[in-house]
Design a protein that fits this description.
This is Alpha/beta fold hydrolase. One of its GO terms (molecular function) is hydrolase activity. It is built from 16 helices and 8 strands. It is an alpha/beta fold. It folds into 3 domains: 1-118, de novo design (two linked rop proteins) (Up-down Bundle); 122-258 and 323-400, Rossmann fold, CATH 3.40.50; 261-321, no CATH class.
């Protein structure tokens, strides 16, 4: 579903930024005019122009706040947060030590929190005990009554952030009377940037502490806790649900059965063999050629090396082998909704594999190009996707 760029990665990420407009995360005119200033595939210009837009919109928000125009301030600061996240997206050479990447990520978090404090429903920052540290999170409440309500745990993916949870799920949830507990886990958001914790395949080690924490909150109905997996979270959440009996429901957006297989589908067979054999010098040379001609491949391998704690692209791809639901999917007991995107840029064909492997009560919903929901995670069709999600979840809770 072509939007504003010929480069497929630039086009998708621009649609992703624009798609959050439905919950105040973007203004279409700002997106279009920013995109016009960026040559196709120019990552330097991408950062410069999105940062300029974010700075300008942040200034509007800060000025409005100082003048007491709090709704205007909230709206502008929400957009600025999304634009800062977008600006930082391709800065992947060494994000942990890159001052610009760290600055943009910090600004994305700070502008979001400034906006969150001006929201009409409570947003509570939380620290979730995990191993010998904590995970940052937000508890989005549907109201301030303290009444127990059904709650969705937001599990983000390969590159999504805690702040993105508001646009992707929480805004639609609280409008329907649901609470949302969102967090950054290892490999994600502030946790990889500030704590240096990388992804792990045994994600139940992450979700069990999150559920433990959720059960300490009096606002959360312990019998109606659901888990939502976003993008790579479609694997992570499913893996965790197989070992977490306290979940009332599972939603995978989109379903991901085998993360390693998704990589192998875009590589020539000989390259997969070299990586499996440990011929990294040769494999990395080929990967470098692929990265030189594809923005999608360049970004994905750089982000993977960083977030998986790998030493090279070949090492990263090899590490993904443990990220599979083989022998695990049939252990999931709670009702499960699997989303599929017809034109998924990253995980095409994976959702049906998850659906077929499940033995629990299940449903598959396909987002099509015809209804505007055919892209990865149904970017550009958030309202439709959340309508389908929460209608299913309402019915699932009612039938329990």
């Amino acid at each position: 579903m072509k939007f504003l760029f010929d480069d497929e990665s630039f086009d998708y990420e621009t649609l992703r930024a624009a798609g959050f407009a439905c919950y105040g995360g973007a203004e279409l005119g700002e997106v279009i005019t920013t995109a016009r200033r960026i040559p196709d595939g120019d990552e330097s210009a991408w950062l410069t122009e999105w940062e300029a837009t974010a700075d300008r919109v942040r200034a509007i928000g800060e000025s409005a706040a100082q003048a007491g125009h709090l709704v205007s301030a909230r709206e502008a600061l929400l957009r600025a947060s999304n634009y800062y996240r977008t600006a930082e997206f391709y800065r992947r050479d060494d994000p942990a030590h890159d001052p610009k990447a760290r600055e943009l990520s910090r600004l994305a978090r700070e502008t979001f929190w400034a906006a969150a404090q001006l929201m009409e429903t409570p947003v509570i920052p939380v620290s979730i005990p995990y191993a010998d540290t904590t995970l940052p999170g937000y508890l989005y409440l549907a109201d301030d009554t303290g009444a127990q309500r059904p709650t969705v745990l937001f599990n983000s993916g390969f590159d999504s952030t805690l702040e993105e949870s508001y646009f992707a799920l929480a805004a639609g949830a609280v409008a329907r009377g649901y609470h949302v507990l969102a967090f950054d886990g290892p490999g994600q958001g502030a946790v990889i940037r500030e704590q240096g914790l990388t992804f792990r395949h045994d994600w139940e080690a992450v979700i069990t502490p999150v559920v433990d924490f959720a059960l300490t909150r009096p606002e959360i109905d312990p019998a109606r806790i659901s888990l939502f997996g976003y993008s790579l979270g479609g694997y992570l959440a499913a893996r965790a649900a197989a070992f977490e009996p306290r979940l009332a429901a599972l939603i995978l957006d989109d379903g991901l059965y085998d993360y390693h297989a998704a990589h192998e589908r875009i590589m020539p067979p000989f390259l997969s063999e070299w990586i499996a054999q440990g011929r990294d010098e040769e494999a990395n040379a080929v990967a470098a050629l692929m990265m030189a001609v594809s923005t999608t491949t360049r970004w994905a391998l750089r982000n993977g090396v960083w977030t998986f704690g790998a030493t090279s692209p070949a090492d990263y791809v090899r590490r993904t082998a443990d990220y599979t639901l083989a022998g695990i999917a049939d252990k999931i007991q709670c009702p499960t909704l699997v989303f599929e995107a017809e034109n998924d840029l990253f995980f095409k064909g994976e959702a049906p594999r998850v659906y077929e492997a499940l033995t629990c009560k299940k449903e598959l919903i396909v987002g099509t190009e015809a209804d505007g929901a055919g892209e990865h995670c149904h970017t550009g069709a958030i309202l439709l996707t959340l309508q389908r999600l929460f209608d299913w979840l309402d019915d699932t809770h009612a039938a329990a």
